[in-house]
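Aim 2 progress update. The chain analyzed this quarter is reproduced below.
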Amino acid sequence: MELLATVAPNVVQSIRAFRVPDLQAEAAKLGQHFLYAYCLEALTKQQVLGKIALSFGFPKPMCRNLDALSDCLTDMIYKAGPQPGFLIVLEQLPNTQKFDKEARETLLDVFRDAADFWADRKVAFRVFYSFE
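Predicted structure tokens:
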């Protein structure tokens, strides 16, 4: 049985019982892009955005704010041609004074909007996250 059989194709959810190596293997099996960002050392929104940009191979200047990150996750990739799907892991999102619960939810909203963008194009876009 597929690891993601019970997971919607376009979703942003807690990583829960999934393990990162299993998700990476499943992405390879499905022929989808696997994007991973480990954010534990980030303390601010700028640092989290920088970690994501670096980890995903996005041009850092293009991910200086949430709007730019949104463009990278949607339009920039869409313009690159047909996509096989995405499996994304955001691990250890920080819980700091400068990146609090509200900031985390706002970041996750960017990924939720991207999931909707890709759903409209019938491309899987699954995001799993964990908090510090």
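Residues 36 and 89 are 5 Å apart (CA to CA). The mean pLDDT is 94. These observations will guide the mutagenesis experiments scheduled for the next reporting period.
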